[in-house]
Amino acid sequence: MRDWAGSTAFVTGGARGIGLGIARSLAKRGVSLALADVDASALGQAAEELTRLTEVRTYELDVRDRERFEEVADETERELGPVDLLFNNAGVVPYATAEQLSYDTWDLVLGVNLTGVINGIQAFLPRMIGRRAGHVVNTASGAGLVADPNVPYVTSKFAVVGLSESLRLSAAPHGVEVSVLCPGPVDTDIVGNTGALHEGLALRDDLVPVVEAFLRSGPGVDEVGEMVLAAMEAGKPWIFTGYDAGPHIEARTAALLDCL
Prior knowledge:
Helices cover 51% and strands 14% of the residues. By secondary structure, the chain is of the alpha/beta class. The chain has one domain (8-259): Rossmann fold (3-Layer(aba) Sandwich), CATH 3.40.50.720. The longest helix has 29 residues, at 103-131.
């Protein structure tokens, strides 16, 4: 097992959900934490919990804000030391099919789910390359490998998968590892959080119980945190939280090959 004790991790969306689960797993291993989130209250609660285990800094950050991201990166490394582990995890889960699309929806979803990942990479990857060490984990989704009708969300997550696969090839010669997390259902409050923070992206009332029941059918965030670190230790390029996507990936692959 790799020993990360004494290293520093930066986690976006780190105050809740999968980000918090990852942070808890890192804290148990003696990793110093920089947690970034748009929810100041949740950041405070996460810090209160995790400072019992390790050194923690929190930053209120909208990952779309490129200038602020760079400032936070500088501040993190001044206070905690070089960031060895980067988790670009912040995201929103909107729902918009073809007839519901708008420029505002595209801008917000791609801004958080894709540009937020890009901003994290640009803020920290050059530093990792300079030190010839580091591991980047980008959170996509099973919907980044198999499409459903939720157009902007699927678009953003497919992009994160492609970005991560390409970056893994490009960064490897510089000593930097890259993985992409493609969770299936995970028991989080992401539906409610998305609607609360971005009212225009809230799910229709009739869909909320169905989606929330689906998410509750999956593992909890602490279990996912351990899955992520185990996969990183094993050097896996793709990280899954269950076999839910398996049959769909098989069917998609077969359909692709049939079209060659």
